[in-house]
TrEMBL record:
Residue span, TerD domain: 1-170
Location of region: Disordered: 174-344
Biased amino acid composition, Low complexity: 188-207, 276-287, 305-340
Name of the featured protein: TerD family protein
InterPro entries, per the entry: AIM24, AIM24_sf, Stress/Tellurium_Resist, TerD, Trp_RNA-bd_attenuator-like_dom
Organism: Streptomyces roseicoloratus
Entries under Gene3D superfamilies matching the protein: Mitochondrial biogenesis AIM24, sav2460 like domains
Positions with biased composition (Pro residues): 208-240, 250-275, 288-304
């Protein structure tokens, strides 16, 4: 029986089927609309770095045929064959998309799906309807992505801009439609009788050859000399560029060479060349004005545009013009530096680097300190720290999330209490707290330990509980942390950029600097308190640390800050 997916759900391919030769079918239709269904092969940065892995109707397969477009069959509008074990190492994600060819919106589509078939048996299906979309013209339906193993994700996220916005999201470019090549105009024909159907005209210049290979010319009329064989087509040179007997051909234009500094003026016979005086350009005669475009000597104003003079000494410049500045040249917009590229200045260009980042995933970092969660993807509520919302879009409800009487007792006793709010609805919520760096960590059935003070938000589907850290070296010594387990995402906040270290038998970390660690690690409290050493005043400040032990593959996350 096929496993039904909802938007935002993910699973390992190995949990669905043991096969790697898969059939992917897409069914999408709407009255009066036509769709282009494609597959993008993306690199580790989710970019289309190799155009050969954009599989669509004009390019139906990848170079090694690991991705093939099969066409409509078995009730699917479009279908693909994906052989996972033949996909090259630089491809980390396959994104299956649908775009509307022409006008229309995705809200008009009827019931559709993307499904996976292995060995003739359907193993996974993500069903959707137009009610899940609004004004989008391109949607990402599902992804195969490599995260230690190949996985499948039901995406259902779109773009209003259509195929162009989709390509830009993947780092591609939309090729401009090339204008049809203009045929060189035929020379003005001379006097000639009307054209005959059986033979070409006897007079007048022939028409310019077409780009396609010319068909053999018909036989000439009786008495006309046979036409010579056509020479290879070549662009006709301009009339005035042809050499004549009266004047030689003009030399071919050369690329402009950068101006070279002139050599010092030669001195009198028998004396070395004289060095230029202070403020004099080498090669310039004293008292001579530097040529237009040459750099001005140090301490002297630069020469103005050709035909303009700077304001005289003691003369006030016009209103809005800085002293020593030349009047605005015609055709140059006010406020824009000369030489600035068109469209490179202005309010829109200044704000462009800070636009919202839409990646088509549930948790999307906007920058290092701001996180966006799309509540419509997955349909799972989000638990976040109270007051961490800085902005939201859409219909979102915020409610208090209590821990219960027992939870409050445990939280107060262990220091792992979290004041949470519950976010539900269909919209995007932007989260941040005191400019801390935010890191989304996706769990796929595994577990991670994080201190409660380093948690900003997490999916409500995750199970969390307080875990005790055993200690030795001080009487009754112990610490506590939060353990998150299940399928979902937890957002961890740090002060600065953290470092991830592998666990070795001699791995120690400061209790106030460690942020998280793998749940399989064994953690004990290590103390360097000694009676003889501490019988005297003073200490190092590093007397209590955490020691980590575990099999290879375990890790710890440490921030460059002590809370």
């Amino acid at each position: 029986m096929a496993r039904e997916f909802q938007r935002g759900h993910k699973a390992k391919i190995s949990d669905l089927t043991a096969g790697t030769d898969l059939y992917v079918g897409v069914q999408i239709a709407a009255p009066g609309l036509s769709f282009d269904i494609s597959c993008f092969g993306l690199d580790a940065d989710e970019r289309l770095s190799d155009d050969r892995y954009f599989v669509f109707f004009n390019q139906p397969k990848s170079p090694e045929e690991s991705i093939q477009l099969l066409g409509a069959q078995a009730g699917d509008t479009e279908s693909f064959r994906v052989t996972l074990d033949r996909i090259p190492a630089h491809i980390h994600k396959l994104s299956f998309t649908a775009t509307i060819d022409g006008a229309g919106q995705m809200s008009q589509v009827g019931p559709g799906w993307i499904r996976i078939v292995a060995g003739g048996e359907e193993v996974a299906r993500y069903a959707f309807t137009g009610a899940e979309f609004s004004t989008e013209r391109a949607v990402m339906l599902g992804d195969f992505y490599l995260k230690d193993v190949w996985r499948f994700a039901a995406v259902g996220q779109g773009f209003d801009g259509g195929l162009e916005a989709l390509l830009k999201n993947f780092g591609g470019e939309v090729a401009e439609e090339e204008a049809p090549a203009q045929q060189p105009p035929a020379a003005t024909p001379g006097f000639a009788p009307p054209a005959q159907a059986s033979a070409p005209p006897a007079f007048g210049a022939p028409a310019a050859p077409a780009p396609a290979p010319a068909a053999p010319a018909p036989s000439p009329a009786f008495g006309a000399p046979p036409a010579p064989a056509p020479a290879p087509a070549a662009p006709a040179p301009p009339v005035h560029a042809a050499p004549t007997m009266a004047a030689p051909m003009a030399p071919a234009p050369q690329a402009p060479q950068p101006p070279q500094a002139p050599a010092p003026a030669p001195g009198p016979y028998g004396q070395p060349p004289q060095q230029p005086q202070y403020g004099q350009v080498p090669g310039q005669v004293p008292g001579q004005t530097p040529p237009h475009g040459a750099p001005a000597p140090y301490g002297q104003p630069a020469p103005g545009p050709y035909g303009q003079q700077p304001p005289a000494y003691g003369q006030q410049p016009p209103y809005g013009q800085a002293p020593g500045q030349f009047p605005q040249q015609p055709g140059v917009p006010q406020g824009m530096p000369q030489g600035a590229p068109a469209g490179g200045a202005g309010l829109a260009a200044a704000l462009a680097p800070f636009k919202e980042t839409a990646t088509g995933v549930r948790w999307a970092p906007q920058n290092q300190q701001l996180m966006r969660v799309d509540l419509a993807m997955g349909g799972v509520p989000v638990l976040a720290r109270q007051g961490s919302m800085v902005m939201y879009q859409g219909k979102v409800d915020f409610s208090y999330k209590g821990a219960g009487f027992a939870g409050r007792i445990v939280g107060n006793a262990t220091g792992q209490e979290m004041q949470l709010m519950r976010c539900t609805g269909r919209g995007q919520v932007f989260l941040a707290e005191e400019g801390a760096h935010l890191h989304p960590i996706e769990l796929q059935g595994d577990a991670i330990c994080v201190s409660a003070e380093n948690v900003l938000a997490f999916d409500e589907s995750l199970q969390h509980e307080v875990r005790r850290i055993e200690g030795h070296g001080i009487p009754g010594g112990a610490l506590f942390t939060m353990q998150f387990q299940g399928t979902g995402t937890v957002v961890v906040k740090t002060h600065g950029i953290p470092v991830v270290l592998p666990v070795t038998p001699t791995t120690f970390a400061d209790c106030n600097a460690v942020v998280a660690w793998s749940a399989a690690s064994q953690v004990v409290l290590s103390s360097q308190v000694r009676l003889r050493r501490n019988a005297y005043p003073g200490h190092s400040g590093e007397t209590v640390n955490l020691q980590f032990r575990g099999a290879p593959g375990n890790f710890i996350v440490v921030q460059p800050y002590e809370v």
